[in-house]
């Protein structure tokens, strides 16, 4: 069984921009690419799990999401880093058409993490979830992972609602360094 680090995308890997889908608007949070590279060098799978309700709301398409992820892959490759898999939930109960449904993949549900575990033979109990929202941590914990909240994106606000025993780091790079010291 393999170990993985699951990353939220918006607010964790990249600067939070509401309904981000255009490559021209993408911007890494400082140190994020280095963090991914450190995880790669440690031999951990790096899997992004992201709610993308903009698809359900009709703001952009699934192909737009794939296009943005390919763009991010190119930027990471330039820095010697790589994401092993991208999973996203296009659903939202208030969405349109076939996307308007409750599902098991939308965080805080653990569906995306469990799907990745099936696909890549991941030991969830030896894996981590890093995100900027409580729903990220809840998804990770429901899947059996340890979790880290980062203060980027919505994290500084979300930290106020966390129990005091949770791990909180300023950003993804610091979170990854903490994780690597504790595995």
CATH C-level name of the domain at 9-123: Alpha Beta
Largest sheet: 6 strands, parallel
Classify the beta-strand content into a percent band: 15-25%
Number of strands: 6
What is the end-to-end distance?
15 Å
- Considering the protein shown, what is the CATH homologous superfamily of the domain at 9-123? HAD superfamily/HAD-like
User: What does the average pLDDT come to?
Assistant: 97
Radius of gyration of CA atoms, rounded to a whole number: 15 Å
Helix content: 25-40%
Ranges with pLDDT <50 over ≥5 residues? none
Q: What class would the helix/strand composition place it in?
A: alpha/beta
Order of strands in the sheet with most strands: 3-2-1-4-5-6
Could you state the order of secondary-structure elements as H and E? Answer: EHEHHEHEHEHEH
Quaternary form: single chain
Query: What spatial form do the alpha-carbon principal axes imply?
Result: globular
CATH architecture call of the domain at 9-123: 3-Layer(aba) Sandwich
| SS summary, helix count | 7
CATH fold field value of the domain at 9-123: Rossmann fold
